[in-house]
Amino acid sequence: MAERIRRLKLEVIALGLACRDPRVPWYAKLIAGCVVGYALSPIDLIPDFIPVLGYLDDLVVVPLGIVLALRMIPPEVMADCRAHSGSAVADRRPGRVAAGVIVAVWLLLFAAGLSLVLSAARS
């Protein structure tokens, strides 16, 4: 199981690299970018604390998205990206920009929720 998870992570990283490749069509970049974003985002369709269903979306949505993206990306591009994904893992630094975006989204959602609660309390 641990080996499958490691391979899945490398595939997501390879898709992220493919998003930057000029040989990939824009629509494939869009799909691959959404898959990578969903796989790396702490925000899920179904929160992980919900028994069984919480992890089921990760086990279904991410692999199906990967399969869809792989069908749109030229095989030679994916071969190159897979070859570079191992070194990309070793060279990875914490993504401060990505963390900042995630924190900003959470703060905006919190502010919107608080605004709704306060406006409902005034009514």
TrEMBL record:
<dbReference type="InterPro" id="IPR010652">
    <property type="entry name" value="DUF1232"/>
</dbReference>
<feature type="transmembrane region" description="Helical">
    <location>
        <begin position="97"/>
        <end position="121"/>
    </location>
</feature>
<keyword id="KW-0812">Transmembrane</keyword>
<feature type="domain" description="DUF1232">
    <location>
        <begin position="28"/>
        <end position="64"/>
    </location>
</feature>
<dbReference type="Pfam" id="PF06803">
    <property type="entry name" value="DUF1232"/>
</dbReference>
<protein>
    <submittedName>
        <fullName>DUF1232 domain-containing protein</fullName>
    </submittedName>
</protein>
<keyword id="KW-0472">Membrane</keyword>
<dbReference type="GO" id="GO:0012505">
    <property type="term" value="C:endomembrane system"/>
</dbReference>
<keyword id="KW-1133">Transmembrane helix</keyword>
